[in-house]
Amino acid sequence: MFELLGIAPQALFGQLLLGLINGSFYAMLSLGLAVIFGLLNIINFTHGAQYMMGAFVAWMLLTYFGLSYWWALVLVPVIVGASGIVIERLMISRLYHLDHLYGLLLTFGLALIIQGLFRNQYGVSGMPYSIPPELQGGTNLGFMFLPNYRAWVVVASVVVCFGTWFLIEKTRLGAYLRAATENPTMVGAFGINVPRLITLTYGFGVGLAALAGVLAAPIYSVNPNMGADLIIIVFAVVVIGGMGSIMGAILTGFGLGLVEGLARVFYPEGSAVVIFVIMAIVLLIKPAGLFGRTA
Amino acid sequence: MNIAKPMLALVTGLLMTSSALAIDIRIGVLNDRSGIYADLSGEGSVIAARMAIEDFGAADKGINVEILSADHQNRPDVASTIARQWYDNDNVDVIADVPTSSAAIAVHEITREKNRVFIVSGAASSDLTGTMCSPNTAHWTYDTWALANGTGSAMVQEGFDSWYFLTADYAFGHALEADTSAVVEASGGEVLGTVRHPFPGQDFSSFLLQAQASGAKVIGLANAGGDTVNAIKQASEFGITQAGQALAGLLIFITDVDALGLNDAQGLVLTEAFYWDLNDETREWSERFEAQRGAKPTMVHAGVYSGVLHYLKAVEHAGSKDAELVMAAMRELPIEDPVMGGGELRIDGRKTHDMYLFRVKSPDESSGPWDYYEHLATIPAETAFRPLEDGGCELVN
Prior knowledge:
The structure holds 2 protein chains of 2 kinds. Chain A is mainly alpha-helical. Chain A has helices spanning 9-40, 47-65, 69-90, 100-122, 148-170, 172-182, 184-189, 194-216, 226-241, 246-266, 274-285; strands spanning 138-140, 145-147. The radius of gyration of chain B is 22 Å and the shape is globular. Chain A: It is found in: Cell membrane. Chain A: Keywords: Amino-acid transport, Cell membrane, Membrane, Transmembrane, Transmembrane helix, Transport.
């Protein structure tokens, strides 16, 4: 049996698969960020908090209303997305004519407030949320034991990511959206309600974060800090992929998951920084990101 | 006649000071108030300190106690800035709690430099009373050696003799791993390997699979709080425990078990210095605590209570808040309180008391919220902690 740097190939396949699973969370979260930045020009720092809200609302639906995971998958993005729409209407919409920094500060402040409120109410230890019975157990692939739930996460994430890409890049609605960001006055003149389009886009981006939160709830601890821990990495993913590039966010999300998975085998202590090292290198060589277009 | 009134006031004043102490004490409770250790320490430790002051009856004894609290965010740099500020500008006499060993080590050094008192409850590293020991520090509740000794030797005795460690990559994790490895090897077991994960972590599946591939009988979790919760959850998800490998949670608090749920936590063997349901006194105290906190106390909270209570007794005994006199009184006085029972404060700063080995109940065995532990064994104070001569503390001899 050949070995690569002391690691058996089976173990390596296992680790790559795990990297892909983590990558699917990165991809879904960075996709939402990229959609919001690409179409609204807002750097949405509330994204991590909205991901956390997704997991918490799923837990609330189960605890207070007895609604299962499957209900949560449908309801949570709508509920949290609606809360995003309220935030967009009341606050973010007032900042479009200002510099990026104002949007960044507002959303960052909102994230701190939301996390603080949840922490105050629920503490930091987290809430138990079980894997739905239909997805419990796993399959032995020979080189590793793949839990059914993780397989489901990868499939769901791939479908959602490419569905979103298709919606924005290949449909008429997507064309309106892209046109509206390019020249809002012109698109408005054709009778399209541009502000509403933008509000709904923000709601959709937030809904994506919430959906990722629901997918994460059964495997990660549902706690108020879960988004804060992840959001920094996700921002690095978006920067590497190129701010605002939909396909860039998806591919870099999965790709960096794989890289991180490898780092966990070869140099575990460095696995937390490997993404940032890559970010620094990419910014030096290609400042607009791997898939970004320089303006 | 003119001077009668002031004279009277002076005499009364003198009389009053001689019957009571009139000492102002400031206690700084420094811990994690927003991160992964906020539930096991946090505001609960402030409540515990306040309960100690009330139960001691400080006001009646002429000792005026004030509590300050702050969030060190589990960062040594933040912890040392606050500790310096408290000692230099706010006249704080004693700092209590300080989870996260790296932060506690920072405060430990500053306390020695400023000659004040440090009562550690939340931090675990046994180095605090070993090579780094200080005459100003009392390590109150538990340490990595005691955890390793309790859980480690109990597991090896049950036949789990080959270990692989999943270690949080900072001072605490390293100390816990080192102490447990020593216990495992001394009990005839072997350590097959170790993987160090970033702190705090989120996804442990890669590390768990590496541990699984090692073929060790036990995966030792040398981490704490949310990291342990996530690792245990994911080990069950990846079928690691079902496939026959055992998990040893080397530091698990009751708040972690609560967060995991008994379904995932059942069967874990763990070592604690305190459990609310040990006896009538702990139940009564925990009920008072719960009324204020909304959750049962952890051993860290119990340790803050016990430590602050004993500190105040020592101040009363010494009639002074001078760090040297108070520390001497703390060592001299017998330690006895309703929460952690009897014990002593050793010259190396280690406070000894009984430790307990528990097993987490299954959902069927539990009668409701917080009924989580089945008592397996009591490790007597004499053997629960590292022998004085083994720590390498220069204060010994």
